[in-house]
Amino acid sequence: MFFQPKANLPDSAKSRIEFCLQQIAECVGLERFSLPVVSRKAIFDLYEVERNPQHVIAFVGKHLGHDVNGIQVRNALPQAQSAGGGCCGGGSCDGPSGLAGRYEPSDRSVMLDQTIDSDPAMGLATLINAVVCDLLSQNNFAGAHLPEQVDLAVVGTGLGMIRNGISLVAKHPVHWDSTQWDVFPRPFLDGQSLAYANAIAAWARDDAASEWMNDLPSDVKRPTRKSFKFLRKTNDSFFQPRTKQFLLTQSQSEWWKLATESSASSQVIAIRHLNSDGKLDDQQESLLIDKLGSANVAITLNAISAIERMGPQQPAIGCESMVRELRSLTDHRNDEVCAKSMCVLAKLGGLDEATVETAATMLDAHQKHLTFAGLYALCMQDSVPEEVVPALDRCFVRVLRACDYELIDLIATAYRRWLDAPQSHMEELFQNSPEHLPIALETLQKVSEPRMPLRRGA
């Protein structure tokens, strides 16, 4: 039996990295992504000769074909851990604070928080990131202030060997985004993303030997080789700099065509760019419905997002066939698909009796995004079946006891819409929990939704 090769990242994360690399390459030049990989030893040896940071900056500038004459290195006092910062600084989530300095684009200076000799790897990685950040800034790249995108540029241009040995991310931020594209702010690349960036950089320059991979840290080497094997076998990548194609300015007709390609990454990225100035034609509508039914969760989630995005400008997007498919997805085996489809159905006004019942069951879910989706959908209804209220009561008690205040406003909105006397209902609900009642009543007072009577037996 033969097993299909797989990348070390899911298609959602994989496609986002490829899209960012294409953005960077189109900004600073596709040819820079065919530059050879500079070994870790070469950088260390260069610094050891005279221990002069400017020599390292000059070397990196020459490698990139970038004028670095205006870049100055300065020493600064140690900086406190931060979630933001300059272009090559910034922080991670519950992890190390970042590199040993930051780049200031206003005067093209590298502010070092410690001497390079105190931690040569960290110091040299900071200088490299700063020069690459300067390249991005001088070319007016919009994401030059984002550490993750600077990391991608470093690896993609062959300068990532030192960075590969430094862990800057302990764990990702805890924010739900079903497509995995819009979690912000992004920290530096984590180990798995760093590995995929290495793999696609090697594959993009047709680096079949890839001897430099032997020098990668073991925790990065294995997933890098896994994805490199996947890419060589499948060619499944949106980012292909050897073709010298500028893809991000292509027409809508070309994006719609790209959405039919076999590459999962290309499909995801194309779907994220789909739009229509007029009414969707039958072929476009059929394509979206087909993507909703895809076996690939990333494609399905991004198709749902495309419908959500186009819905306000395209009233016909809520056609019966589209709504019917979205309703079926509220019972999908993947809970993110369930939640996303429920939210979009509510926005399109496509909830029916069955999906309202499904939304009510989501109120008892342990996953927060499912609870949110159920609440959001139900709050869009002027009335609900009587049995939904007990489920909302259980949810309200749970989130208050857990101090999960993000969901409380939605619940108070629902009580306002459905009940004739929401305050009396809350007082009865919390009669055995007097410590929670003031919070509940305060939230209710902040919600200005007019009262709507509960429709009995709906």
Commentary on this structure:
- The protein has 458 residues and is mostly helical.
- It has a domain at 11-75 and 96-234.
- It is 51% helix and 3% strand.
- The chain has 19 helices and three strands.
- Strands 1-3-2 form a three-stranded mixed beta sheet, with helices on one face.
- The N and C termini lie far apart (54 Å).
- Mean pLDDT is 87; it is low at 79-85, 90-97 and 449-458.
Strand and helix map with partners:
Blueprint: H1 11-28, H2 40-50, H3 53-64, E1 72-75, E2 101-104, E3 109-112, H4 120-138, H5 147-156, H6 191-204, H7 218-234, H8 252-258, H9 264-273, H10 282-292, H11 297-310, H12 320-329, H13 335-348, H14 353-362, H15 368-379, H16 388-401, H17 408-418, H18 422-429, H19 437-446
Parallel strand pairs: 1-3
Antiparallel strand pairs: 2-3
Helix pairs in contact: 1-5, 1-6, 1-9, 2-3, 3-4, 4-5, 5-6, 6-7, 8-9, 9-11, 10-11, 10-12, 11-13, 12-13, 13-15, 14-15, 15-17, 17-19, 18-19
- What count of helical segments does DSSP give? 19
Query: Low-confidence runs (pLDDT<50, min 5 residues)?
Result: 79-85, 90-97, 449-458
| Estimated helix fraction | 40-55%
- The coarse silhouette is globular
The secondary structure category is mainly alpha
Largest sheet: 3 strands, mixed
Q: Quick check: average pLDDT?
A: 87
Distance between the termini: 54 Å
Query: What sequence of helices (H) and strands (E) makes up the elements?
Result: HHHEEEHHHHHHHHHHHHHHHH
